[in-house]
Amino acid sequence: MKLPKQYNSKESEKKWRAHWEKKKTYAFDPNSKSEIYSIDTPPPTVSGKMHIGHAFSYAQQDFVVRYKRMRGFNIFYPFGTDDNGLATERLIEKMKNVKATKMDRQEFINLCLTTLDKELRFKYVQDWKNIGMSCDWDVFYTTIDDNSRRISQKYFLDLIKKKRAYRKFSPVIFCPHCKTSIAQVEMEDKEKEATLDYIKGKLETGEFIIYATTRPELHPSCVGISLDEKGDYVTVKRPDGEKWVISKDAVEKMKQEFPMKIESEYKGKHLVGKRVDIEFALGPVMVSHDTSAKTEYGTGIVYYCTYGGLDCVEWIARHPKVNPVHTMDETGVYTKGPYKGMDSNEARKKVSEDLDKKGLLIKQEKMQHVLNVHERCGIPIEYVALE
């Protein structure tokens, strides 16, 4: 046999791939008496072209399969594609210049299925063949096919029967743009300029408790004001006679801008259990102790609502007796309260203006703020309660 002077990898690999497929070299043999070794391949998402990360991760499992095959195991190594989710929907929207939200649901599903079958899936799978994956290509599935959905439904019903799956009205991470709940791993941090509002809330004893927030629009769903019960707090008197409550640590930072004189000092525990009037709040708000409050940070007093972020979700879990107040739907639009019909961006500006008119906004300052955004669209996420 005459060897070529120069090895042509493209021609050689193509020839041997075809040979191995024809000879069923990687096929699972259901009649074999050898011990079965199986790998449930995590199906790659049809969201574009294969990239180096795919090759890196899938090659590792292929190393194991090839080793086990050489050891004499009967290998069950199927291959499938995940094409039943947001990533594929976004790809097809981009390819076809359409919006799923502006189409009939079944019409969009049919468009996705047709595009996958005729334009995407074959080329996508070929990439995995080209890197030499030793899968059984005759055992192929897609997460959107009838069999996969039937299996998924069967096991979900099984979980319900075993009472391991249940409905619960609970906060989820939601993308208002993509209109779907997402996982934490689908979020990215994005630094953005934000406005920090310093606001007054009137205690039942007449003093004003001072807190700060970048999300004043959530005042209607405010459910708690927290501080450190072991921390040092003070009541200060302003030149106009108004009394403010802040942490002792905050005095030095604030007195340069707001002249004040300390009138009394006490531990935060002195304030726990007192009612505080938070403007626009739709439910009662009480002062509580919480581990998140630090006297050296801000005014030493923290405002919580349902839900402004993960910190609010965690706060409500630590305070189970507090009833959440839900004012916003999954699109970020208010469904109740004085700002009903507005989205969060509109309400943010309007609430700040209204607080200012009422003399409750004492100052605003610009700051760099890290937001959680959906990695696929770059839009800030919301925490909303859904069943």
Describe the structure.
By secondary structure, this protein is of the alpha/beta class. The protein folds into 2 domains: 17-161, Rossmann fold (3-Layer(aba) Sandwich); 188-386, Valyl/Leucyl/Isoleucyl-tRNA synthetase, editing domain (Isoleucyl-tRNA Synthetase, domain 2), CATH 3.90.740. It is 30% helix and 25% strand. The chain has 8 helices and 17 strands. It has helices at 9-22, 52-70, 86-96, 105-130, 146-161, 248-255, 310-318, 344-357; strands at residues 36-38, 74-76, 79-81, 140-142, 170-175, 180-181, 187-203, 208-213, 222-227, 232-237, 243-247, 261-267, 276-277, 286-289, 302-305, 361-374, 382-386. The strands form 5 sheets. Strands 7, 8, 10, 11, 12, 13 and 16 form a 7-stranded mixed beta sheet that branches. A 3-stranded antiparallel beta sheet has the order 6-5-17, with no helix packed on it. The protein has a 3-stranded mixed beta sheet with strand order 14-9-15, with helices on one face. Helix 2 links the parallel strand 1 (36-38) and strand 2 (74-76). It is elongated, with a radius of gyration of 30 Å. The model has no long low-confidence stretch (mean pLDDT 90).
Brief digest:
With 387 residues, the protein is α/β, with parallel strands linked by helices. It is 30% helix and 25% strand.
What is the CATH T-level topology of the largest domain?
A: Isoleucyl-tRNA Synthetase, domain 2
CATH homologous superfamily identity of the largest domain: Valyl/Leucyl/Isoleucyl-tRNA synthetase, editing domain
Percentage of residues in helical conformation:
25-40%
Question: What top-tier CATH class of the largest domain fits best?
Answer: Alpha Beta
Structural class per helix/strand content?
A: alpha/beta
How many structural domains are formed by the residues?
2
- Spans of 5+ residues with little confidence (pLDDT < 50)? none
Order of helices and strands: HEHEEHHEHEEEEEEEHEEEEHHEE
Strand content: 15-25%
Shape: elongated
The number of E-state strands comes to 17
Major β-sheet profile:
7 strands, mixed
Mean pLDDT: 90
Global Rg: 30 Å
Q: Could you say what the CATH architecture of the largest domain is? A: Alpha-Beta Complex
Annotation field: number of helices = 8
Q: How far is it from the N-terminal to the C-terminal residue, by CA?
A: 69 Å
